[in-house]
Amino acid sequence: MKGVVAGYGGGRVLHGVDLECARQSVTCIVGPNGAGKSTVLRVLSGLISPEFGEITVNGARLGGRSPQEILRHGVAQVPQSQALFPAMSVRENVLMGGYLIRRKRKLLRERLEQVSERVPLVAERAEDRAGNLSGGQRRMVEIARCLMLDPAVLLLDEPSLGLDPRSLAGVAGLIHSLNAGGVTVLLVEQNVRLGLGLATHGVVMEGGRVRLTGTAQEIAEHPEIAALYLGVRAE
Ligand SMILES: Nc1ncnc2c1ncn2[C@@H]1O[C@H](COP(=O)(O)OP(=O)(O)OP(=O)(O)O)[C@@H](O)[C@H]1O
């Protein structure tokens, strides 16, 4: 992202965001409430259009394109929690993620197999209603559904929201394995310690701008961040 200015109904929230994510990195955006973190994800996935600025993914200029076009270019956003259809089976929920390729039956089958390998829960609980899964399992299926289009870039807004430590470890493990398999990840986390622990790179946003960037470790150890978010006193 270069110089991205965006907002809602005339009110600007992003005031010129510059952000770069290396291929196959895991970048975590942290910052106070209202800093514009989720808005960055929404601009990237096309839910809102930037007023100014450039968005380039793998050389393709995607700024202002429709969510569908952006998905076709390999950028998928995992929606915030509670996004599954509870009365439908796990398999049916995952297949929904293949809506854009629904007429390519063979590809759809191959992708479902691939997703079941990447997220074994999808095969293990294929026939169960999504509503019967635990919170952590639902989060895994929400992520699995996004994998049906085999995205190059995965956007996650608060993947830790509402999860107990055990479920968190499962979701963190899944993000790691997807990343190891070549997926570039950009996530927003309120749980700064967890988010930066998962990430290779960190970005601190404040007031609709990027204030700091670095490796996840540099950001986690930055005196201001440690004092503000991690409960460590700056010397
Ligand atoms: N749909 C919307 N319509 C109007 N204003 C919005 C909308 N969504 C967010 N905003 C405003 O945009 C600003 C930034 O919101 P955003 O959700 O990007 O922040 P954030 O950094 O993700 O914060 P949080 O951690 O609280 O989610 C806030 O002032 C918020 O009120």
TrEMBL record:
The keyword RNA-binding does not apply. GO terms for molecular function: ATP binding. SUPFAM superfamilies: P-loop containing nucleoside triphosphate hydrolases. Keywords: Amino-acid transport, ATP-binding, Nucleotide-binding, Transport. InterPro entries: AAA+_ATPase, ABC_transporter-like_ATP-bd, ABC_transporter-like_CS, BCAA_Transport_ATP-bd_LivF, P-loop_NTPase. Coiled coil: none annotated. Residues 1-232 form the ABC transporter domain. Belongs to the ABC transporter superfamily. This is ABC transporter ATP-binding protein. It comes from Nonomuraea typhae.
